[in-house]
Batch of 3 targets.
Target 1
Amino acid sequence: MLQSQIHCQQQILSAEMRQSLKILQLPMAGLQAELIQFAEENPMVDLDQFYKDWQNGDSNSLMTFCEDFSGSIFETVIPSRQAANENDSAQIADGGSIQHQETFSEYVKEQLPQILKYLPFRYATWCEYIIDSLDHRGYLDEPLDLLASFMGSSVEEATQALYAVQSLDPTGVGARSLEECLILQLVHSPYFNKYTLNIIQDYLPLLAKGNIEKISKDLKIPFAEAQRYCQVIQAFNPIPSNGFLQSRDLPVYIIPDAAVEIQGQEITVFYNQRALPKIAPLPEYLAIIEQQKTTKLGAYLKDQNHRIIRMQQDLERRESTLIKMIRFILDRQKEYLLGQVPAPVPLSVQEIAQELHFHQSTISRGIQDKYIFFSGHTVPLREFVSGKVGNGAPVNKRMLKICFDRIIDAEDKLHPLSDESLRRVLSSMDIEVSRRTVTEYRKEFDIPSAAYRKRKER
């Protein structure tokens, strides 16, 4: 049994498996960069005319895929750094320009020897695995229990490895949320106190709106003091990867992995093969392998050819996995895609994994930073995957936000609903959540409390 467990861990952490997962996790633009770097390192690779056109600045071949469906490319190429800043809820700081001539992953991994000398040897692989699992912002958005199961570690060991990564520069790397990213920076500043901590945990929406007066009133501190604390937090970096190359030698764009068409009840998924340079060995090198099987040159070229074959298999596996995932996810969300319901239905990573017989980590990596092109728009695949909120009716966070808005719009403005009253209204709609949960989501949705929603009588 013990030997079986050891063998299982070796499989989990094998270089081939990690490479395959990396190829699956990379967004399309990152995969382009990975293949170009692969071609530069492998003398046997022949890149077809597509890559030559792209290298010379002809991006039309990249975009033909999307033009076939929309006649426009305006939403298919968006700098991911800009998109990340626009989507950040608090808009804490400007990302700035690239300052480092290395990728974010390279920079973080270079620091590992500084901390690994204080940890058992097995942590080296785990820390690298966690770094490879970070998204384009430098955040870790995979549950630790899933990472632990895939790394062959306990949850406690995975947590310790994450803490080790979070101790590296830039401060905030490995954070699991915006709040944690800012708190990691706060504890290294001279302004770490209960007020600054409270602002990050409870008042980021107000900070984003510049409502320092209410923050000052709620925390019962002078306005000038609250303003100083807010300025400190606004100076923090909400995206640790800002200032780094996202990929070696190439700008990062959001390019859809697939286009989707729905005709009647039929969903058709077109994988974006045109966005990738083709990887193939040069025939003359294959001939040398046959002619010089016993020489060092022949052995070297044979090894390089095996690398090409593994890469081709990884690319085929990526395409097959993504198509299965996209078809299944969109089939569940067909009513939303057709505009028949206002929000996607709840659909969890665990449910997708069970239905498709994949590991949850595979699904989590597969939907990370992936986009589909549908009805003239480039849409993140994660938009269609979210867990159920509370008990009763199948409602996710987006649908809950719609319910909140409708309830608040219809309430008596002279006597607005308390959080407990909101809970009872939701319960009458078969959405069972606790009052505390109502309060948490109300704050997350940036909805003021009843006292601040109340309108004075004239």
Target 2
Amino acid sequence: MKAPHPQPGAASIQGALSGLRVIEMGQLIAGPFCGKTLGEFGADVIKIEPPADPARPGANGGDPLRNWRMLQDGTSVWWQVQSRNKRSIALDLRDAEGQDIARRLIAEADVLIENFRPGTLEGWGLGWETLHALNPRLVMLRISGYGQTGPYRDLPGFGAIGEAMGGLRHLTGEPGRVPVRTGISIGDTLAALHGTIGVLMALYHRAVHGGPGQVIDVALHEAVFNVMESLIPEYSAFGAVREAAGSALPGIAPSNAYRCADGYVLIAGNGDSIFRRLMDVIGRPELGSAPDLQSNAGRAARVDELDAAIGDWTLPRTIAEVLGKLGEARVPAGRVYTAKDIHEDPHYRARDMILRQTTRDGREIDVPGIVPKLSLTPGTVRSAAPHLGDDTDSVLAELGLASGDIAALREKGAVA
């Protein structure tokens, strides 16, 4: 077992969640992203991962995210972000002794995170009633496709399906064309963020009001639906079904992407005074002073005309020229950033949003920084993402198991 790989300067700050013990049973994105967030602010996150299955030669154990997308030294570089500040214990939850160890860990924990299909933990003897009786202070986050109740609860659900059912996929893409994804697993991440908020609220209730632990039930599609703005009120009041609008912001004008000589810029000129300044910059002051364009309702009615005027101005100019002139006029605008743009941007660097992290294999890699930024207890990267089972022995020793007991469990395959 390799020793944890601390990051430079990581021990100098006491995290806001220091002293909080979190058990993470989730895999891939939604549950682990919540664990990542809690860990960055000081929580001790113990990640339970399945050992390799001897019945499937060549199959990898652990969280499948370890093998997703681009690999370095046999491990996904995504893993280096998602699992930093976590400890890994390889534990077979299908095994009775593995389940017993899980119960012992949970008995001493503040938070349990899981994102299995409803009923999975109950099948392992780890349902809420059992765990609550064992640890009445436990806060349990359960993320699933459709929630723990309702007619769809037993259906398999991934983030992409949640995005579709939550209404997001219908609005992405160009009008009349196939719906597209946002380019990232936004449904999973939205569920994780809602789960994190729920955990913190439950911990506050426990600490301030003396309440017991409770369950936070997050459904992927509900997390997406919760950010869908006026979608349902507009349908309820007017029978309006909002449709895809490409890069435009329907009903809010002008706000769109505009072609330049060397790419695209996004311009948000939809504030009343901002609109007038924008029209001055593009040489159309008569539009800026038109009585019917002094409010958003009038501008929305003439959005095609406004977009055409702005597009005529941006088209022969470079992105740099457009952004320079709009910046001087205090009109919100920006280029469409690629990974390269982000990596080279001085503002990202100035705000510590690109961090240099050392993996447990000794490689250095640039990774995203930590959000949000707290003034007194900022988040930190205290240790690199673990190899599978890196911390099995130390975690079991903390439970009081002797080295001989651990060796026996390893021989039986209950731990690895």
Target 3
Amino acid sequence: MDTTQSGKPTESKATPAPAGAAGARFVKLAKSLQFAWFVGHAIVLFSSVLYMFTFKEWLYRLVYLGVVHSFGIIIYQQHFLKTVPRDTASLLTDENILYFALATVWLFTPRFTISLIPYIIFSLFHFARYLQNNFLPVVFGLTRENSGIIQNLTNFTQNFNERCMYWVAGVELTTEVILLLKALVWCRRSWILFPLYSLFIKIRFENSKYSRAAFAQWRVRLDGLISHPSVPPVAKKAYDFTKTKLIQLSSYQLTKPTLSPQAAEAKQN
């Protein structure tokens, strides 16, 4: 997910506030659906900070309630307020639906703290952009020209968004590996979570440049590690077999036309 392109309401950017009481402007702003979306991201951010200090389960659940709330508003806007019909294939490529469905799974399954990281990062950028484009200009009349706060928020979102999205993809791939290991040792509900999350990773690989970059980076690193002379031949053979099967699997597309195995390998390279 690129937070500059999706995961936010389709309302226009706010103009600087006219003269008047800040409280009245805030009340007017708070009545919008976009503000409700912003509140969801605020819940995610502040609950996750408290959770990292206390690890209380109710805070973990509250984070995901905030996620479901904010992503649910986007889905409501895109698929219920608009009259343009969407086919099933397009629903599979809708990042908001994908992350909403995944958050619902995490909400009702045993705690898995690493799963919070992508949502925290998404909420951080959406929260910052709403302050920058809506809250501060509307309520306080601030602009980039007269406010260092807005300038700093703008610099942050412009300079770190792309980098963090690549990092999110790496975290998601790490999560897949951890779920695989948990499934191999028969952890609670692991054989339910692992296939569901694998489906999520497959769809992300097909549609996200960040996910494909994470796979490519891992492949280069693993190729280097496995090629070391100290690695037993049986391990190298197992690695080559697994890599080949994954390349073949990538040729079967869920959301796009099917690629040949040769084309899939070329795409990964």
